[in-house]
Amino acid sequence: MFSPINTILTASLLTLTTLTSVVKAQGDLSALNNITSLTGTWSSGSGGVQTGGSFCNPQNFSFTYPTTTGISYSFTDDGHFEEAQYRYNANPADPRCITAFILWQHGRYQLNNNGSLSLFPFSADGRIQVQDPCAAVTNLITYYDQMVMFQDWGIQVDSIKASYALQLNAFDGKPLPPLYLVANPPNMLPTVILTGVNATGQASKRSLDEDEEVEKLQKRSGAISERGVGSVQAVAGLIGAGLLMMTGLMGL
């Protein structure tokens, strides 16, 4: 027979095992185990960077800078995502030339049969601002459209923060910083195309009044707004592996 002490210890061990279990997306793509568990807003570190309207306004090409660096992802249970990042890249060759970038995009996500997670952004809506004191153009705002694939992902309970923690592993297996659940339902902008040509085929006001908005933006922030594939490629080359490796994070 179990003594009262043994019963209490057994119950405690079962509870601890449950709280520390990891939910992995490894072939089990049921809504109960995957989509529902992903739903919410997840943020690294202290939660200073979060998705939603307080981070980016894609219609007027503007960001509200957080007080700390970090990354954030939000997911809905019907297949939409939102991404926000504010980070620094160090320059070992010249410590004065630290590059700061802030980016936002949203779109659809897909759970794949091999356990990976793919993000497919709405190409017209993504925005990125890069600040490089050593570049010819020190402050650049442009479109951002980067498809993302995570090799796998898992959710566990962080006993220190008393919060669910989402671990995303990049396409090459390198882990991102853990992301903690900060809101459910998620904090997100509307999960539709917000700029450019919308789903009805109509041009948005942002496209029709683009020149006027760019002029206002330049007067307001001093940033130069670039458009076209060339500018996106230039930004991608500038931040390089920093987006993929998630290294050099400050304040996470």
TrEMBL record:
One of the record's GO molecular function terms: unfolded protein binding
Subcellular location: Endoplasmic reticulum membrane
Claim: Phosphoprotein is one of the keywords in the record: no
Keywords: Endoplasmic reticulum, Membrane, Signal
CC per GO annotation: endoplasmic reticulum membrane
Main localisation: endoplasmic reticulum
Gene Ontology BP term (one): 'de novo' protein folding
Segment forming the signal sequence: 1-25
InterPro entries from the UniProt entry: Rot1
Function of the molecule: Required for normal levels of the cell wall 1,6-beta-glucan. Involved in a protein folding machinery chaperoning proteins acting in various physiological processes including cell wall synthesis and lysis of autophagic bodies.
Family: Belongs to the ROT1 family.
The protein, known as: Protein ROT1
Species this chain originates from: Filobasidium floriforme
